[in-house]
Amino acid sequence: MSTAIAMAAPAVILGGLLLWLINWYFHEQKSGGSAIQKKSRVSSLPPVPEVPGLPVIGNALQLREGRPHMTFAKLAKKYGPIFSIRVGSKPIVVVNSEDIAKEAMVTRFSSITRKNLSKNLSRAAFDRKMVALCDYGDFHKTAKRHMTHNVVGPNAQKQHRVHRDTLIDDVAKDFHTHVKNHGLQPVNFRDIYSSDIFGLALKEAIGRDVEYIDVEELGRLSRPEILKTLLTDPVEIALQYITLGDYFPFLKWIPQRNFERKIEKMYSRRLAVMKALIKEQTERAASGEEMNNCYLKYLLAEGKTLTEKEITSLVWEVIIESSDTTMITTEWALFELARNQKIQESLYEEIRSICGSDKITEENLCQLPFLDAVFHETLRKYPALPMVPLRYWEKPEEWNPERFLDDKKEYAPNDLYKTMAFGAGKRLCAGALQGVVVGSTTIGRLVQEFEWRLEGREAKDVDIVGIATQKLRPMHAVIRPRNL
User: What SUPFAM superfamilies has UniProt attached to this entry (predicted)?
Assistant: First the structure.
């Protein structure tokens, strides 16, 4: 008897919960829906088309493939350039045209005062104490000014030029080393590039690269372990896990202990590593060693206006934003070039016609419109964070850099609104300029020095991870040095 009751108990609980959800849904419908819906009915604005969804969960099942920007592009064919969906209790307005997005984010609502973040994303973002994800206000304006002045602004970029040149040389050298040691065996692009660009991020953030760090709580961590703790784990937590209560408030009471433990473990490990990195640099400075020009040096000088937590989160933000998104875009660009040999050769010929036997440099970028088109076409199809869906391009699923060379619509090389991949208005990504420069120069240099090819099924491997468009499996390409 007791066994039967024990086996039946879960069914009774689930059945009761289901009845409660159904009752809640029809009560909402009868009472006229949410406050947001009621407000929209009295608005003088024309109604936004709504994509029909299911009771309680809304349009959640339509997003189950994990590629929302692709799903939105398909829905746009039926519902137009702007429509709304609902995920659980959250209404979401989707804009599918960069012209409309630019109007919304630049012309009308440039500040976008508040960002509603899920619990996991908020925790991954140091509880929103970073430029990209904090609410618009005094802290955002102050922190963005610090970042622009010391990391990503024009003057700061001039000071960090030597680090970027070193990065490009090191990347090319590492690929030549692979060919020397392994011949025509496929190379894992991500293994090499992510490590090198991580070094650039560390130099800009704390003044130097590191091979290991001694962390009081964790012991000695190697460079790959540092990279995983600071970059890989937070991104995975932020993008691949969902907190039910964020979308279904009536389910907040259900514990997600395993998930919460993962969040806190990630948070504590990252915090411990960041504190160790900062402590090591401050101790070097205290001993009389000159601290190289870096973001940390400036923030410490601003210690009276910033808390320890704010300094830690702002330094971490520079590390992740200077490395992760650039790596994603560069890998996809070389993947597409490797499986589109004619486009790759067109790019190579453009570079050769401008640079000759000299190595491509940042000064050459303004003379290479096809390279610029390759970079922005990659951003269009594989935005690092697909916030704006594929717009009404001709054949939007096709990777075609020529679309950015269309005589009917001119695209200036420095137009960061081409694809809206960097955001817009006062929320424009502070590191957009560096992302374009580093990504474009890397692509140009690697095509200038190597012929890239894919073998077997690699050319069809376009799977992505989470809601980000990072390639699920690292690209393995066969590279052959060119005769320059």
Answer: Cytochrome P450
Q: Residue 127 has which token pair?
A: 């509880």
Residue 429 among known ligand-binding residues:
yes
The token pair that represents 144 in the structure block: 């963005």
State the burial class of residue 35 (Cβ atoms within 10 Å of its Cβ: 0-12, 13-18, 19+): exposed
The count of C-alpha atoms lying within 13 angstroms of the C-alpha of 178, restricted to the half-sphere facing its C-beta, is 22
CA 151/CA 160 separation, integer angstroms: 8
Block means of pLDDT (10 residues each) for the chain, length 484 residues?
41 41 45 44 66 79 66 79 79 73 63 61 77 79 86 85 94 96 94 93 92 94 93 76 64 73 89 94 83 85 81 91 85 94 97 95 95 91 62 73 72 56 62 86 97 79 54 87 82
| CA-based nearest residue to 61, from 73, 52, 49 | 52
Tell me the per-residue pLDDT of 19-62, one tens digit each, with 9 for 90 and over. 444 444 444 444 444 444 444 444 556 778 888 887 877 777 77
Nearest to 296 by CA among 201, 231, 196, 435: 201
**CB count in 10 Å sphere of residue 384:** 21
Question: Beta-carbon neighbour count of residue 122 at 10 Å?
Answer: 18
3-state secondary structure 385-404: CCCCCCCCCCCCCCCCHHHH
- Provide the angle, in degrees to the nearest 10, between the axes of the packed helices 308-321 and 324-339: 10
Give the pair of three-digit tokens for residue 57: 């969960």
Task: Please give the pLDDT value at position 452.
Answer: 96
Distance of CA 421 to the CA centre of its chain: 9
**Look-up: residue for tokens 């809640």?**
24
In order of 31, 103, 131, 307, 353, the CA distances from 125 in angstroms are 37, 28, 10, 16, 44
For tokens 């395993």, name the residue: 258
Q: How far apart are CA 380 and CA 357, in angstroms?
A: 31
Sorted by sequence, the CB contacts under 8 Å of residue 373 that are 6+ apart come out as 401, 402, 403, 404, 405, 411
Give the number of other Cβ atoms within 10 Å of residue 15's Cβ: 11
The CB density around residue 382, as the number of other CB atoms within 10 Å, is: 24
Local structure of residue 62 (DSSP, 8 states): G
User: Does residue 426 sit in helix, strand or coil?
Assistant: helix
Single out the residue of 132, 126, 127, 155 nearest to residue 144, CA to CA: 132
